[in-house]
Amino acid sequence: GAVVSQHPSWVICKSGTSVKIECRSLDFQATTMFWYRQFPKQSLMLMATSNEGSKATYEQGVEKDKFLINHASLTLSTLTVTSAHPEDSSFYICSARPAGGRGNQPQHFGDGTRLSIL
Amino acid sequence: GDSVTQMEGPVTLSEEAFLTINCTYTATGYPSLFWYVQYPGEGLQLLLKATKADDKGSNKGFEATYRKETTSFHLEKGSVQVSDSAVYFCALSGGGSEKLVFGKGTKLTVNP
Hints:
The complex is a heterodimer.
Chain A: E1 4-7, E2 10-13, E3 19-25, E4 32-38, E5 44-51, E6 57-58, E7 67-73, E8 76-81, E9 90-97, E10 108-109, E11 113-117
Parallel strand pairs in A: 2-11
Antiparallel strand pairs in A: 1-3, 3-8, 4-5, 4-9, 5-6, 7-8, 9-10, 9-11
Chain B: E1 3-6, E2 11-14, E3 19-21, E4 23-26, E5 32-38, E6 44-50, E7 56-59, E8 62-65, E9 75-77, E10 86-93, E11 101-102, E12 106-111
Parallel strand pairs in B: 2-12
Antiparallel strand pairs in B: 1-4, 3-9, 5-6, 5-10, 7-8, 8-9, 10-11, 10-12
């Protein structure tokens, strides 16, 4: 149980393109989803917290207009990297926390999306 | 703020060796503690967790005990396998926040 599907798994595109990444919770509902960025051989950096039906909460230093987050349903959140440039190349990972239950429920992670901007 | 300090890798072991990856934390209140594992090219998988002092999380032969007195949550396995080769992340959440705070990760390589 508690499967999170992330799509696509790998994207290569030209500079200036906008790229959308989807994160779906397949067998549970998630009022909260999280988006992380991971640089090579480094830990995960939280970019934003996505709440269903409301605006995302971005971490300090993360550009809201650059990384657009939409959480339109209890099973889907999307991250759009707008006008992507080579410095946006990275591994992006989403996670979802099951709705309800106690606050210490673990987050379940997708398999990540490797974004390469040429 | 909250933080997690993890032993730096990489760690290289022979198959069937004993594994310890140290993790200590700084947090206000009583956080929940987690170990996640990341296999090459994949996202993170929850390995085990503990939500209060003296709890022991265990899964797939891995164990970690929540030690409040030493603010530690060390990961152990008695006999590692080649398939355990991965990056291991210690993490916490707490203080009413849903956010996870991660350690820097420890890369484990197990040789046959």
